[in-house]
Design brief:
Length: 248
């Protein structure tokens, strides 16, 4: 964690701030978004000079001027859809030391005020996070749906039928789905606590899983069709300028 002094040996310091509180929907989805990002870009890996993975957060990113000048400033990454991550990757690729820390208790910078803003913001970066691979996208969306949405949907449907005196033979399916839902909620309780959301919201995490699965599918469809992304007042390719077209 970042203290009052510059981390020893670091050429750049980036902190992940708290970002909840904008709206109930954003508070529900953001912890799952953060968890997904950290599966791809773990802070521990970002801090390892021998690991090529890097993570940067535009909300708090301090860079030694000499290091930034050495990598050409921001001009080389001006067209990247995730310019903060691109900056971190470029610094590491040139041998500079990056220090990334979770700091929700030190910083608070709400990123989005509504789910529609969150959809647009992370939707533009989705294909980059998937390494421009449809296979990664389909696999991630399937895991989100099968692991987070199906158990709750099954428990709700079968439970409703049981309350109506129907489908008694499906009783064990209902109890099994309910157990899977509660197990998943229990597993994600620390995630919601760590990333700025109330722990009890983990019970509603399936909504966040479904939301993110839909976002990934939409991003893949947009990339497949070649539909442009509206970003910073201009239109860019769905996979970002200067990158290759997504593939399997």
């Amino acid at each position: 964690m970042v203290s009052g002094s510059w981390p020893r040996g670091a050429d750049a310091v980036t902190c992940i701030p708290g970002s909840g509180g904008a709206s109930p929907g954003v508070d529900l989805v953001m912890p799952v978004v953060a968890w997904m990002i950290f599966q791809v870009y773990p802070p521990r890996a970002a801090n390892d000079p021998d690991d090529p993975r890097a993570l940067g957060c535009g909300g708090f990113f301090l860079i030694r001027r000499a290091a930034l000048d050495a990598v050409g400033g921001y001009e080389p990454i001006r067209g990247d859809l995730a310019d903060d991550v691109a900056t971190a990757e470029r610094l590491k690729a040139h041998g500079f030391r990056l220090h990334c820390a979770l700091a929700p208790e030190l910083l608070y910078t709400p990123m989005y005020g509504s789910l529609s803003e969150l959809w647009a913001g992370f939707g533009k970066n989705a294909m980059r996070g998937l390494a421009h691979s449809y296979l990664n996208g389909f696999r991630s969306a399937a895991l989100l749906v099968l692991g987070g949405v199906v158990p709750v949907a099954t428990a709700a449907v079968v439970g409703g039928l049981l309350l109506c005196g129907m489908a008694g033979e499906w009783r064990m399916v209902c109890w099994g789905s309910l157990a899977a839902w509660l197990t998943m909620a229990g597993a994600f309780t620390p995630v919601f606590g760590q990333y700025g959301g109330a722990r009890w919201r983990a019970l509603a995490a399936p909504f966040a899983f479904g939301f993110m699965a839909a976002l990934l599918c939409c991003a893949m469809w947009r990339a497949y069709r070649g539909s442009p992304i509206h970003w910073r007042g201009r239109e860019v390719a769905p996979h970002g300028p200067g990158t290759e077209t997504p593939s399997l």
